């Protein structure tokens, strides 16, 4: 386990140990016992983390005790999801073109399941559970044809039981709609192949879609296109009323013009995709890349992060106005605190900040720093059991 730098120093002072003093080894367990409480009802923020293959893991933070821990993984993780029926179960999916996922039990802090893609498949780093928690959906690609697939696994055994088309190329983030059976899929439109690493092979013909699919039948309900053909729908989050917030990435080198393209959008049922405007100076800074998105239902704010732009930005879902922004180096991880009072932001340097959902100002008293952690692109908030 790891403590934040501030809590470690405070703990030493409480034990009567000042700067420069030697610390007897016997005080180690006593020190930790002062700072770790029962997992029950504690909040945890979870994220893939690691600076290299030797220390990739699924990591988590307890913001109350300001402590962190992790379980090792054999791959670089990306997105995560929690089982709504068995909330102790957390899945981490491998980053494209990885082929493995792991399941963490947050009650025991142990990995209790591993699953691999079928032959001729690779993951895209995201998935979600069915409403009853019995099924696990995962965004994958059939390597030999480039077809996007949604695979279906038994959530307990993690065995593959079905698959259906994503109705696009490069399915990335997927989420369950409020009706409990419709999947919304961000088909990024970008064709890659494991033999070529992360090189995009179809820039001239890419076609990104937001697809709605009936998870019970695998049939396409509807699909929606962006006005800019070289923009890729990558990440999304769903509000309680079914509004979908969409984070985009633009393939600038494939464009035939130099105009700036909005990187945030929303889609409401029965409407077309609407792009979210921002001042030109901010759009330039984003460098054609949004990395994560989350919706705060009570304030109707959608938060987006851009690690290439070092910015978090906040738009209102109804009037589509930009409400504010926050500068934070390499920020990408994004979730909402369990008390619904803060947007939680993380970066690759191990830093975490909390932004008040009403004022959109940073609460500097709640900043955390874990020098041995390198938080990856996505974060979720859960309650320990």
Written description of the protein model:
The protein is mainly β and 385 residues long. Helix content is 6%, strand content 45%. Strands 1-4-3-2-29 form a 5-stranded antiparallel sheet. It has a 4-stranded antiparallel sheet with strand order 5-6-7-8, with no helix packed on it. Strands 9-10-11-12 form a 4-stranded antiparallel sheet, with no helix packed on it. It is globular, with a radius of gyration of 21 Å. The model is unreliable at 11-37 (pLDDT under 50).
Give the topology, please:
Layout lengths: L1 E2 L1 H10 L12 H7 L9 E7 L7 E6 L4 E6 L4 E6 L6 E6 L5 E6 L4 E7 L4 E9 L5 E8 L4 E8 L5 E6 L5 E6 L5 E6 L21 E6 L4 E7 L5 E8 L5 E7 L13 E4 L6 E2 L4 H6 L6 E5 L4 E6 L4 E6 L5 E6 L3 E6 L5 E6 L3 E6 L11 E2 L5 E9 L2
Antiparallel strand pairs: 1-4, 2-3, 2-29, 3-4, 5-6, 6-7, 7-8, 9-10, 10-11, 11-12, 13-14, 14-15, 15-16, 17-18, 18-19, 19-20, 21-22, 22-23, 23-24, 25-26, 26-27, 27-28
């Amino acid at each position: 386990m790891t403590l934040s730098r501030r809590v470690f120093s405070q703990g030493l002072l409480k034990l009567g140990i000042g700067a420069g003093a030697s610390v007897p080894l016997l005080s180690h367990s006593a020190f930790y016992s002062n700072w770790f409480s029962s997992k029950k009802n504690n909040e945890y923020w979870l994220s893939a983390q690691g600076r290299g293959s030797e220390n990739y893991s699924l990591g988590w933070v307890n913001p109350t005790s300001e402590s962190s821990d992790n379980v090792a993984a054999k791959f670089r993780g990306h997105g995560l999801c929690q089982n709504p029926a068995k909330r102790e179960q957390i899945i981490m999916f491998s980053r494209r073109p990885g082929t493995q996922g792991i399941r963490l039990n947050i009650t025991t802090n142990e990995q209790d399941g591993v699953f691999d893609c079928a032959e001729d498949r690779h993951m895209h780093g995201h998935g979600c559970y069915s409403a009853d928690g019995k099924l696990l959906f995962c965004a994958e690609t059939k390597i030999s044809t480039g077809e996007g697939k949604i695979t279906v696994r038994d959530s307990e055994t993690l065995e593959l039981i079905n698959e259906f088309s994503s109705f696009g190329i490069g399915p990335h983030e997927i989420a369950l709609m409020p009706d409990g059976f419709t999947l919304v899929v961000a088909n990024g439109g970008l064709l890659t192949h494991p033999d070529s690493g992360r090189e995009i092979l179809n820039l001239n013909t890419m076609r990104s879609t937001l697809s709605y699919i009936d998870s019970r039948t695998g049939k396409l309900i509807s699909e929606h296109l962006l006005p800019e053909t070289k923009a890729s729908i990558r990440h999304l989050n769903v509000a309680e009323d079914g509004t979908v917030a969409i984070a985009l990435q633009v393939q600038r080198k494939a464009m035939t013009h130099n105009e700036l393209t909005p990187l945030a959008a929303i889609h409401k049922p029965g409407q077309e995709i609407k792009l979210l405007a921002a001042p030109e100076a901010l759009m330039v800074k984003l460098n054609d890349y949004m990395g994560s998105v989350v919706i705060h239902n009570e304030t109707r704010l959608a938060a987006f992060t851009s690690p290439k732009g070092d910015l978090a930005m906040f738009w209102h879902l109804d009037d589509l106005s930009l409400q504010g922004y926050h500068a934070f180096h390499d920020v990408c991880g994004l979730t909402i605190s369990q008390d619904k009072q803060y947007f939680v932001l993380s970066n690759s340097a191990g830093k975490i900040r909390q932004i008040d959902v009403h004022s959109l100002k940073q609460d500097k008293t709640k900043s955390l720093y874990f020098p041995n952690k390198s938080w990856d692109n996505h974060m979720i908030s859960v309650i320990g059991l």
